[in-house]
Give the backbone structure.
Amino acid sequence: MKKRWKMALMPVGLTIALAGGLVFAQMRSGSYGSTNGASMGQGAATEMTPDSKYDAGAYPSFTPELAEGDGRQEVQSFCATCHSTRYITMQPPLPGATWEAEVNKMMKVYGAPIPETAAKKITAYLQAHYAPENRKE
């Protein structure tokens, strides 16, 4: 009985293996995809009328300003080299120890080139302005 099942499944297995090999060969040769790819066209652009106004302005950037205080310049110069200052302002109020851990992580894990004196100033700034007890919305 087992031999019969094996014999019945063998052609199915061979067919699947052959189909997989053909698909792989097509992919390697770059000839996969639609056969009518060259004839696929793009729709015509809509016609612009002379009495219409077509104007586009600059994309608005709504990055909130950092709080005024000692260390703000260091935060803007060192932190903003890798990410927007929005990453700071969008955080929930974090405890002081968490801000210290974040600054250390940026330096040690991500390799932020922050001098130790600037790191202390950045940490003090974040603790003074973005901790739960003193966060100003």
In short: The chain has five helices and no strands.
